[in-house]
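Handoff note, outgoing to incoming analyst
You'll be picking up this chain. Sequence as last confirmed:
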Amino acid sequence: MSSTDVVIVRTGLANLASVQSALARLGLSSTVTEDAAQVRDALRVILPGVGAFGPGMRMLRAHGLDNALRERIEADRPTLAVCLGMQLLCAASEESPGETGLGIVDAPVRGFAGEELTVPRLTVPHMGWNRVSAMRAARLVTSGEAYFANSYRIARADLRQGDWTASLCGYAGSFVAAMERGSVLACQFHPELSGAWGLGLLARWAGVEFTEPLPVFDGGSSAGHLLPRIIPCLDVRGGRIVKGVKFANLRDAGDPVERAALYEREGADEIVILDVSATTEERAHAVETVERVRAAIAIPLTVGGGVRRVEDAARLLDAGADKVAVNTAAVSDPGIIDAISERFGRQCTVLAVDAAQRTDADGWEVVVRSGTERTGIDAVAWCVEGAARGAGEILLTSWDRDGTGEGYDLALLEAVCGRVGIPVIASGGVSSSADLGAGLRAGASAVLAASIFHDGVRRVVDVKREVTGATGIPMRACKVKHASHEGARP
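Most recent structure output, in case you need it:
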């Protein structure tokens, strides 16, 4: 191949680090550009996307990239559009009324809304792992579980397929998970965050062989519902994982890069990194740790700690985070939730809430600065406000249960899940697979744990099997074999 195998379009909104990391895992070099001539003439181009339809299109037009992309796609030159990038191929989107898209795909982009969202806990954004069903005519896409983070989609009924071959996904109806035509591939999901399955898809699109020994996952058919996520949490300080009880008496628990890679191999669906001393030490998150972890994994990465401004969030996204969690700063200035969501999109914005039982009344109040300060703010009401301001997910931690092994505060979890229409991650108090299952039954979209994984009490894959066996809830579960993905098909 040429000195640069893949050119990545800089849209100004995308998190590019995960795309570049995935390409590097395949032995492919990449460069990021906003130069229209380079995009038009490149051997292979990726149009990534994080953010909103309108700002994305305005960025493309400002640099003449809209015409360059149209030319290369119409000429059937190898092009991959990811998430928002796929939506930008369409003529218009409900997300940005009046904004004109590239017009390459004859279909509107619509939101998940209205009568479709009648199933309990059918949350928006559609965030997590869901089943992709490939059509028989698909050359690149195979059936499997992929990672999605979208609030808008192309409904199956709206796509006039023509010469496009669509692969489908079910959530509030059937929608287009991917479509391909010749050398052009568009994915609503993130192949760069979809583990070995996603890396295999990228390899086929790029025409290279991929034989890296990563585990294969098989969650079975999710029947049009998101598969619940099992998330190991890495609390870090000074570049090391630490663990304590109620955010205190911290002890060393290992290297974050080694642990993150291990947990991916064991079946983790996502990794969360929280810099537990960034706020109290009044500094930004250590981005070096984020960069090192991103280079080691091909699953989603959420990062929090020390996020006080939009620029802090941008720095973490540039380093390799896919989502940014804001906690103490949001209590001081709730407008930071709006600002991060408006710039990077709801799917990148996580409100982390540490909640403690009130000492003078029923319910829970928000605690900040690693649990050292009580605010008097009602925790459930704060979650509701955060969702209204643009948070796409709630990371809900029970301060009373953290590190105790007493299980999640299920009453707190049920109270929040019953009031917000966005995904909720349960955190604080896990000592067994039974605790994780209880959190999912209480309404959580994902369950987070630390000690049971760090201390070797359970492997992630074992936890998944135990939860499914006890509850019947399907998981993206690990097979005991390794992946071998071939390059382009003849």
